[in-house]
Design a protein that fits this description.
A hairpin with a 4-residue loop joins strand 7 (about 70-75) and strand 8 (about 80-85). Helices cover about 5% and strands about 45% of the residues. Strands 2, 4, 5, 6, 9, 10 and 11 form a seven-stranded mixed beta sheet that branches. The chain is mostly beta strands. The protein starts with a strand and ends with a strand.
Length: about 130
């Protein structure tokens, strides 16, 4: 059974940092493009960042560009999202998603669509909560 499990969320003060992990099981992560999404309370899920299969390309939405860094370690079957300079508006449940066919250009189209989880992406994790508050 293919699974993604996120971890690393928690409570952090504004300006702080967190590193989220997305561990894959039941499949080889190096065959998949990986994206991170987030869903704030009362809001739609939105895209955050995407990384290509080899890790050579990455994209970010403007709200996190320069503060977040996506990476992957295919040998560990894990992807990461390093979040620095956190703001209260970054508070959300963070989800990772993986797809065999979609590249980051295609994921970027999903970033802007409502309910991206309804578009048949191969695997979704169940999320990890990030709360940014003093």
């Amino acid at each position: 059974q293919r699974q993604l499990v996120e971890s690393g969320g928690g409570l952090v003060e504004p300006g702080g940092s967190l590193r989220l992990s997305c561990a894959a099981s039941g499949f080889n992560l190096d065959t998949m493009t990986i994206s991170w999404f987030r869903q704030a309370p009362g809001k739609e899920r939105e895209g955050v960042s995407c990384i290509g299969k080899s890790g050579g390309s990455a994209v970010y939405v403007s709200a996190v560009k320069g503060r977040f860094t996506i990476s992957r370690d295919n040998a560990k079957n894990t992807a990461y999202l390093q979040m620095d300079g956190l703001k209260p508006e970054d508070t959300a449940i963070y989800y990772c998603a993986a797809d065999l066919i979609l590249n980051c250009a295609a994921f970027e189209l999903l970033f802007r669509r409502p309910n991206p989880e309804s578009y048949g992406v191969d695997v979704w994790g169940k999320g990890t909560l990030v709360t940014v508050s003093s």
